[in-house]
Amino acid sequence: MQRMDELPTGTVTVVFTDIEGSTAMLQRRTDEALALLGSVLDEMVDANDVSGTIMTLDFVAAATAATNPESAVRLGAAADRLRAEMGGGLSAEVFGIEPARSAVEPVMDAAAIEAAWAAGSELSLEEAVELGRELAATGRPAGG
Q: Which of 27, 92, 93, 37 is nearest to 60 (CA)?
């Protein structure tokens, strides 16, 4: 990945896409998707791409919501706060946190979700990346 040293000038177009059936595929092939997300996370960190790192953390959180809901909520909260600190950007809902939140509600009560969100909101970027790497590698945090 090539790093951009200067911001573009003139008209800039940003395109977001979705692949039809990608959510169902992710659910069927979670291990492969997590391995890919782990690689992308490493590339974002190596490129010092904070925005890309945060977006990848969102995807890891969404991908692990069903298998590790508490850690997924913590990771989503960390990404949400880190994004806000960068000046906003796109909301976490665009990157799948809202569906992830829906996935955890059947197995976590509101108080547990709130507690996990509060704990995740305290994570530094480095701590969030470490949690994201652990979840992408194993589906579980270290010791979990």
A: 37
